[in-house]
């Protein structure tokens, strides 16, 4: 699969293209996990903090972005292949309010 990969921290004033488009192995979901074909992914300030080193991920390389909408390709338990899903920001989502319901 193709992914925009960050291999380490960068000063964006010196390198404004820190991500590299790479072909990486497609992960296999473990029990209780799903594989999502991403249709859209938000990049927010947390991702910029990782790029510039203010928030350091546990290891590099990483694929930044954590606000995702997509289609389930493979599934563990509660979901079915083809289901549309959204992955909330790291603080969570209620799944019931108007914002969650409207996507």
Question: What can you see in these coordinates?
Answer:
With 103 residues, this protein is mainly beta. It has two helices and five strands, in the order E-E-E-H-E-E-H. The protein has a single domain, classed as Medium-chain alcohol dehydrogenases, catalytic domain (Quinone Oxidoreductase, Chain A, domain 1, Alpha-Beta Complex). It is 12% helix and 31% strand.
User: SS-based structural class?
Assistant: mainly beta
Percentage of residues in helical conformation: 10-25%
CATH class: Alpha Beta
CATH architecture heading: Alpha-Beta Complex
Find the count of extended strands (DSSP E, 2+ residues): 5
Q: Strand order within the widest sheet?
A: 3-4-5
Write the CATH homologous superfamily. Medium-chain alcohol dehydrogenases, catalytic domain
- Report Rg: 15 Å
> CATH topology, anyone?
Quinone Oxidoreductase, Chain A, domain 1
Mean pLDDT, rounded to whole units? 85
Sequence of secondary-structure elements: EEEHEEH
Distance between the termini: 25 Å
Count of alpha/pi helices:
2
